[in-house]
């Protein structure tokens, strides 16, 4: 299996083990010194233990499904379909994989819905 | 050049030609029936002409730089650094490439900053 295919498998395992709350399996995918960033809130967590606690504590009955995984050497991008009770949203997740195959960096974006600006109604349809 | 490398080049050309407002070069990368979607506003544009007009009309002195490109067969994900005057934001762009090498679908996310929820200050640092 080449590096891209290992990265793809790691990215899919990351989501699947989160969805299953299989914390031992999930933690084993991460480097000890993994860095987790949420650029929208400018929050950062250093280290696997804190990142695990963040996920264990995360409120709500959240569920993750992969819409798309794009793997490329030691990088992956995950497009996720996230459901929390009746709400659904999309997430964009960027992964970096270290030389030993563990995840060294995770960057999450949680784009919120918003109303489109006026002036482009003639070009777009709403769905 | 294999499919992934063609996709990578197309993704980088897409951003570079947008940044340069080189509309003929940008349009040539797109399928006639390209679909452009912005899931946050649930807006969709069908076809290259409308998508071109949307970009030509887009207000502000916007500038794009690639933070990361992840290419994988006929899919690419672009992590962009966007500047409009003094403002900066990130964008996550998902591309699909057709059998003829043109871009058939573009999905853009424009994640806005927000304040983090209370209760996780003990786990995170702000940056």
Automatic annotation (TrEMBL), chains A, B:
It holds the Pfam family SnoaL_2. Residues 13-105 form the SnoaL-like domain. It comes from the Bacteria. InterPro entries: NTF2-like_dom_sf, SnoaL-like. This is Nuclear transport factor 2 family protein.
């Amino acid at each position: 299996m080449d590096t891209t295919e290992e990265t793809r498998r790691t990215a899919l395992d990351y989501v699947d083990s989160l969805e299953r709350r299989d914390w031992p399996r999930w933690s084993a995918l991460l480097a000890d010194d993994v860095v987790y960033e949420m650029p929208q809130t400018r929050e950062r967590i250093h280290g696997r233990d804190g990142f695990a606690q963040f996920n264990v504590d995360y409120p709500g009955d959240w569920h993750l499904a992969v819409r798309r995984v794009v793997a490329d050497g030691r990088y992956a991008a995950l497009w996720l379909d996230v459901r929390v009770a009746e709400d659904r949203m999309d997430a964009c997740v960027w992964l970096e994989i270290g030389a030993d195959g563990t995840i060294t960096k995770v960057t999450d974006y949680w784009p919120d819905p918003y109303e489109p600006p006026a002036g482009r109604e003639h070009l777009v349809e709403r769905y």
